[in-house]
Amino acid sequence: MKKPSMTPWSVSGDIDYNKLTKEFGAVLLDSSDADNSDLHHLIRRGFYYSHRDFNAWLNAAKSGKKVSILTGRGSSEKMHLGHLIPFVLSKAFQEKLNCPVYIPISDDEKFLVKPKLSLEEAQKFADDNILDIIALGFKPGKTFIFKDTSYPIYPLAIKTAKLISYSTAKAVFGLKPETNIGWTFYPAVQAAHILFPQFKSGKHHTLVPIGIDQDPYMRIARDIAQHSSLGFQKPATIHSKFLPGLRGSSKMSSSDEGQDVIYLSDSPSEVKNKINKYAFSGGKDTLEEHRKHGGNPDIDMSFQYLKYFFEEDDKKLAKIESDYRSGKMTTGELKKYAIDKINAFLKKHQENKKRAKSSLGKFMLKN
Ligand code: TYM
Fold this sequence. Notes:
The chain has 2 domains: 17-242, 3-Layer(aba) Sandwich (Rossmann fold), CATH 3.40.50; 256-354, Tyrosyl-Transfer RNA Synthetase (Orthogonal Bundle). Helix content is 50%, strand content 10%. It contains 16 helices and 9 strands. The chain has helices at 17-23, 34-37, 41-44, 54-62, 81-97, 107-113, 119-134, 154-161, 166-173, 181-201, 215-225, 268-278, 287-293, 301-310, 314-326, 331-359, and strands at 5-6, 11-12, 27-28, 48-52, 67-70, 101-105, 143-147, 205-211, 236-240. The strands form 2 sheets. A 7-stranded mixed β-sheet has the order 3-4-9-8-5-6-7, sandwiched between helices. Residues 8, 70-74, 82-83, 85-86, 104, 106, 109, 190, 193-194, 208, 210-211, 213-214, 240, 242-243, 251-252 line the site of ligand 1.
């Protein structure tokens, strides 16, 4: 087993998700609870697996109280499928529960953290990423997007900064003496994001869907939320596991020349080549063996992508799983099914993204 390592900036090795939840003081999500499992297949299938105060947020939303959702993106590059996960859930909840969604884009964070990224590049990626996010189908008038370097977040960030000691930030984020001071300040900015809906419209329940790597910011924001100078509700969170990389790495991320990643801008032939060439297979070496012993969908990336993202129909997914396990379905057939599903999603996404340009003004938060 590769030694696991996880910070908000990088993830490697084999992640023990249940252990992380325990270490972070969160709670495992009961995906069999009907209230939860009916909400979304990402919850029903255990991809969102951990939380704090999620059910309190859900009850408030269902009983018509003021609630909000907040989740963000750090714009260091073009977006891939993994980055979409919190936005997919946020959009589905917005549709179901009709709540506002706030989306900060931390171009400042990525400029500070990535040695080779210029501020102009981070801002450019921000503009491109925003179109990808809008393309998911968020509601205009109920969705508020802003970029840190063009929205006045600073007056809020100094309010949170005053409540976060250097030793807390150091303990939570492992800051080193050589870390630049912009980076050491950034946790105050993300804490301001997490509390942003309450800064804007007063005390209420906010839900923050994130990959578990972003939890350190949540802990800080929750610690300061009820301070007398703010008087807020502790924000709730729901954590996802990571969408794995094509070759089976624990988190899809853009290292290794894109061999582990499906970008939202990939063409149908790029997707086909990547799945056929790199997607880790749970199939047997020969067709004969596969027919006899069957494949293992639990380690097969094409199946994992169908399970967590592309096959929403539980019955179809169960049939694919049992056919693959029994050897009735071959690896080639499974890969083809996944390629077709991914390409159908990306075709629609890329069309929506083109259209998103003209509606940008309806989503960007004015000062
Ligand atoms: P970023 O841009 O690295 O990632 C955006 C969100 O996507 C999640 N994520 C993944 N989830 C599942 N599988 C993957 N392979 C995968 N890769 C990324 C991340 O956990 C994250 O939730 N600092 C943040 C941006 C941010 C933010 C916020 C997030 C700014 N303000 C407020 C939440 C709340 C970041 O760099 O995320």
